[in-house]
Known about the structure:
The protein is an alpha+beta fold and about 250 residues long. It has a domain at about 1-150: Nucleoside Triphosphate Pyrophosphohydrolase (Alpha-Beta Complex), CATH 3.90.79. The protein has helices at about 50-65, 75-90, 95-100, 155-165, 170-180, 185-195; strands spanning about 1-5, 110-115, 125-130, 145-150, 205, 215, 235-240, 240-245.
Amino acid sequence: xxxxxxxxxxxxxxxxxxxxxxxxxxxxxxxxxxxxxxxxxxxxxxxxxxxxxxxxxxxxxxxxxxxxxxxxxxxxxxxxxxxxxxxxxxxxxxxxxxxxxxxxxxxxxxxxxxxxxxxxxxxxxxxxxxxxxxxxxxxxxxxxxxxxxxxxxxxxxxxxxxxxxxxxxxxxxxxxxxxxxxxxxxxxxxxxxxxxxxxxxxxxxxxxxxxxxxxxxxxxxxxxxxxxxxxxxxxxxxxxxxxxxxx
Length: 247
């Protein structure tokens, strides 16, 4: 989906739905309203954001921004949209779930990656990515506030539009799409998720005179020697966008 152009971070970029963890997302009261998080979710957790909090936040933000939410019972598109409208109106997610006799299917959120913004950035974020098989009967819809347009497309098509200058992608989104482009089926994407390192990928900004770039762990310019994500080890700034390249 497209972030609103006036957004203070990544305004106008094509992104996956996302947001921040709220203080109550890790509360023990969620136990009755959720399935257990995916077994690997704890590998992305910290003392400030546990596996439960990360997964609950991901569900709430995906519902808010994309009208897609994993549940333990099927809801029609209209019911999900109504649920989002009530959430936007100030109704707590927990109450909305109780009213529908549903729980968040946290085990459906498959840990995919963890990216941290470079130290050179004034605003820094510790972002966890999950892979979700789209729930039945949910087609998704942007919220017309934080996101102004949404679409479904194959990863290779989104990357083609990026390389032609039609859209902007941040490096974590770009790398995720590059990896997913090699997956011919949903099952192969799920299998690939299970192979991903969940250690933090924190790019290092290198102010090269020819072309500045972001070095990923494993690149000769990065302090961390082991690779933490497959693919090329740099995002080089060319024509106002960071593109994947090797040294």
